[in-house]
Amino acid sequence: MSIKKTKKIKEDLDYLKNKINSLNHDYYVLDDPKVLDYEYDIIFQKLIALEELFPDLISEDSPTQRVGGKPLPKFETVNHKQQMLSLNNVFYLKDLALYMKRLEKKLSIDMENIKFSAEPKLDGLAINLLYENGILAVAATRGDGATGENVTKNIKTIKSIPLKLIGQSFPKTLEIRGEVFISKKGFQSINSSNNEKKFANPRNAAAGSLRQLDPKIAASRPLEAFFYSIGYCSENFNINSQKQILEKLSNWGFKVSNLNMSVSGISGCESFYKKIYSMRDSIPYEIDGIVYKVDDLNFQKKLGFVSRAPRWAIAHKFPAEEKITTIESVRFQVGRTGVLTPVASLKPVEVGGVIVSNATLHNMDEIIKKDIHIGDNVSIRRAGDVIPEIVRVTKKSKLRKKIKLPKNCPCPISSKIEKEKDMVFAKCTGNKNCPAQKKGAIIHYVSKKAMDIQGIGEKLIGRLVDESILNNISDLYKLNNKILKNFVINTAVREDSGKKYEITLKEKSIKNILKSIEDKMEVKLSNFIYSLGISEVGEVTAKILANKYHSIDKLSKAKYDDIIKLKDIGPVAALNIYNFFNEKSNIDIINKIMNSGLKIINNNKARTNILNNGVYVITGKLKNLSRQKLSDHILENGGNLSNTVSKKTTALIVGLDPGSKLDKANKLGIKIISDDEFYKIIKL
Ligand code: IVH
User: Residue 649 pLDDT > 50, yes or no?
Assistant: First the structure.
């Protein structure tokens, strides 16, 4: 083909592509169609026909490339050019006020004069689009913030997303961030179609659709996207505020929420929140709160970040949804320490997109305080991943039945239940003989933060306890090929005789179980102490004990008076620790474990004194290391750990989504640092 002819065809293709892209923008972004559907179809068919004749000239930004391609074998990973951040949350106005006070202090401006971009918090998935020379090159999910999954093919099926930026003025390399979601209507239509999987809520539907390896499936789902920020940008251009960023995004062709608004001060934020909250049901897509972003980019720079979240923005979350349902019955569950937890069986009800049929009642005192009876109507609340709980009784049933603490444990040996007058919790007195407690203790022992023995799950532990193969944690080390094979054969025989056993252990899984125990024959002292499952001894307390006593032997001989003197260990925990090591059966179990060859190492001895005996508290999810590792660094550098913020705290180390500890530290004027800043102090 002559150069001239190729040029002409390219021009024709460009004309058609630009025309369709522009019609798409009118239709999907501006909600303002400029032509009739059949006119659009004619232009589209022309493009298809021309591309079929000249397949070599098909370009990445052609609208015909939105659908199609073969299913991927797996998603490739993509490194974001700039990290994708998260947001810290507040739920209450008083916490928003604390946040504003901090801004006021850091910026030295009266809080009422600080300008914000107030935006709905879309409840979907964050997405990062990379444009090279104005053309969409890669689309990736957020992943861990640094690396996500390459979902370019699926993203291209979203017609409102520009394959090519509008206009001429854009940086050569540019990352655009926003949220992919499915509208409430779209969610209903997916769920009502017969042959499709049912999703719990629009967010799950969006996630499930975006993570389809077959782009044709993604194309069939009503995915939408709004955009709200710029990530990496290869050139400096004249933008001074979040407001201007939103305008720029819109000018480049992105869909931007039409609810975004510029507001001033806490009063402006509050009234925006109230307005959006009141119209929440009429908004066609799910939002779970409001995001306030300090508008001025220079101020943003000045405020910076703590861990993975900016100091210049905060999410003001809507209260968790509440629904009313009926308590049908109440059962009692026994945990590893023998504590009985009353659990209500509810008439199933949908709360926040999930069907809820159980809710914890915490303990008997709670039941009395809230005056809860079987048969009552109650309101149920579910916040995020939290276990649903009963807020209050909304209507007392005429036939209401009192919830009674059982006299005996619901387990097969039905030991007596005990509740002392001033104790909140009722306990099963079966202790080590109660199968429910046995199971709980072993499940805790193998769990991730404890011994982290991976190949053996809850169900299997339950069966092995039922068969009396496991009676306590030391029995794990007795397991061998023969015992497990016999177990398989016995359960198989039982299956024949009508009893249903779901587990059939294959040769390979037997090997895996034994290997995973073998792999964890060396453990840190603090992990081992935590694994013992002593009531009230969490990870931090275990570390404090390890740091003080350096060996199980010394700890087991510690006097109550010495334990209680340790910083941050209260009287109840101290008594539990003392009692635990003064019970012969516990010492026997520990000895058996040691005799099986478990090596306990104490590597938390202080190596430096950089932290000068200061007291450190950790809150939130950490960016770089696990909480355990960070705690190790504190101890190894001559610091102390504590669970609670007090006047004695040297600094609070804050990760993502910090809890109430951050508020307390702010109130007490305690130093707040990110884990990054902490590593700088100890020069990691
Ligand atoms: S800004 C530093 N703006 O919320 C800025 N995020 O909890 C980080 N989200 O990962 C994001 N609507 O998926 C921003 N208007 C909005 C948002 C928004 C929803 C999501 C986003 C982010 C998550 C953080």
Answer: yes
